[in-house]
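Please review this one:
***
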Amino acid sequence: MAWGHDYEGPVLIDNEHRFPWEDRFSDREYIGPDPVLTTNPYDVPDIQSLLAEDPKSPPSSTLSVSQFTTLAQDVFFALPEELRSVIATCLPTLDVLNLRLVSRAFWTMFNNQQFWASRFGDSSDRSWLFEARHSTETQNWRWLYRRTNSLRRGFGLQNRVRVWNLAQKLVDILDFHWVDIGVNYSPCSDQRVEASGEMWEQPVAGYSLFDKGCRLFERHLVTIPEQLSRISVCSIQLGDMSYVTGLKFTTVVGGIRQIGYWATPEQSLETSDVCGFKLAVGERGIQALQCIDSKSSTYPWIGCPERSPKTLRLNVGDHVADLEIGFDGCKIVSLSVYSQFPSPNKMLHDGNRLRNSGMWYPDVPEQNLCLNEASFPPRENYLSGYKPLFWTSFGGSGGSGIRRIDFTYDIAVPSEHQTFGCQASGEWTKVTDFAIDGAGGEFINAIEVFQHYPNEGYPWLVEEGTVVAFKTTTNRERSCFFSFHSDPPSSLPFVVTASPGTAITGFYGSHRPHDGSGITALGVISEAIEGK
């Protein structure tokens, strides 16, 4: 199971050909048993002999300090040596060694046994050698530190360090405790909208491996109090992602309604008016939220929104009365809002339903970008559940900077090149180049997308179909057909034509790499052209 990290080496992380919310982890292939991974990390015979070794003198220090450093200029000389020692023990080893280069006051730390002993403390860089703290042998701590550097560790110590570092990731989690203050049991409205991670469900028959997504264990309802003054969240770091674990609402008189797993610190924002939320949602749960007030003003993020799809699905446009919060064993995996008014879908007009209800990466497209939603056949499938859409604009403002389209069938290149998608190239890769004179006024004004609907296959494939080709046409009546095959598909295309004064300047869509598919849905972005 993927925990968002590489297990300190045995797992590969593919950040180039997978989006951050996807399963990016795969096991390394070993020709034979790995001598480090197969060695007992707890019972390491080398440790006792190491602690009993006679210390050997390390090389003499060749440290030189700038001649401009004088006692008068060095403010640290004003401190007693004992206090300088305390400062050094609170710093990482590398920082202390660098500090010696700029301050003569810290020269003595190199020979300070108290400082080197602190390197073997609970949270320092040799904490994994816990036997040293309980040894009856008198230790030369500086020698022991040097003796246990990465180049001089046997297989057992290497695995000890690996497992110890993994265990440290659990330490902060153990500080969390469940808090339940002011929870309700029935909402005051039946107008409910939900956003969640990718929920895993136990199949009715057979066995399904829980290897991605999240599980829902329990739901709790919290009424947002009157005279609200502050909203707070607590977050937890799991691998390389952070997730929200609890919510707290504080009133102007200090009243609290709070639910979830809690520890310190927490993040807060001051607000008295909540008409909806913008969420950052990962595959495994809620990562951050923004409050939206009655004036459609958006507050700063609380939580960690980086590298996750965003959605306005919970921006109902009316006063939010109740929240239903779903939890797994340690974090929030779903969030639902109930509105006091009869129209919670105020923001979901036909022309903007996908923009306001979809999960978008890297962010929700701006209002000045037309998504041509009516020409996106699978739109209804992306208004609920966890089905992220990624998008990109090309060519700068109004497409005036576009020089060419490099579209790779069933492949994409890194996102920094502003290409569409991120899947790796394969045996069936084909590249089609189409040059466009954007600087000279040429722009894309029509796209034909060929969507294929097979008679059998994955249920989503039969229902939503998959993109097999598309054709691009410019205002100069030049066109290019992008397909792996030279002949057009038998399926009829849907056509998006830019209205007068606009140009097609981007794409949005989705893919399903875990099902072996490339880009399965393709939408078209257009925007107004300056001067038109």
User: Anything to note?
Assistant: The first helix runs from residue 45 to 51. Residues 178-347 form a domain with the Vitelline Membrane Outer Layer Protein I, subunit A fold (CATH 2.100.10.30). Confidence is low (pLDDT under 50) at residues 400-405, 407-417.
